[in-house]
Design goal:
Layout (H helix, E strand, L loop, with lengths): L1 H22 L11 H15 L6 H23 L1 H12 L5 H5 L4 H5 L3
C-alpha cells in the first residue's frame, strides 16, 4: 500500500509542481520551468492529440482528480476496519451510556447562576 501511494503521489507532486512553477514563470534559471517551455510542451501535446493546447490543462486536472479518488477509494477499502474502529473510538455510537456521560447532568445545569 505504501508503494501504491508513493507511485501515485510522486508523479502528481512533480506534475503539479512543474505546472505551477512554469505557469507563473518561476524558472530559477532552469529552462524547463520557464513559461516558454510550458507553452511549448502544451503546443506539442496539442499537436499530437489534435486539440487546442489550452484545453489540455483542465483535462489533466480532471484526470488527476479521478485517479486520486480511485487511489483513496482503494486505500479506504483496504483499511475499512481500521477506519471504522477509529470512527467508533472518536465519535462513539449515538444513544449509548458513554455518550450521555459526556454531557453535564440536569442537576448541574439547574444550579447554574
Amino acid at each position: 500500500m505504501k508503494w501504491l501511494l508513493i507511485f501515485w503521489g510522486a508523479p502528481v507532486t512533480l506534475l503539479t509542481g512543474w505546472y505551477g512553477l512554469s505557469y507563473y514563470d518561476m524558472s530559477f534559471g532552469v529552462f524547463m520551468l520557464t513559461r516558454q517551455a510550458h507553452d511549448l510542451v502544451f503546443a506539442i501535446y496539442g499537436h499530437v492529440l489534435g486539440i487546442p493546447p489550452e484545453t489540455i490543462p483542465p483535462l489533466v486536472a480532471r484526470a488527476m482528480v479521478v485517479d486520486s479518488a480511485i487511489v483513496f477509494a482503494l486505500v479506504a477499502v483496504r483499511k475499512r476496519r481500521e477506519i471504522l474502529a477509529w470512527y467508533r473510538r472518536r465519535f462513539g455510537r449515538r444513544g449509548t451510556a458513554q455518550s450521555r456521560e459526556a454531557f453535564a447532568s440536569d442537576a448541574n445545569l439547574s444550579s447554574a447562576p
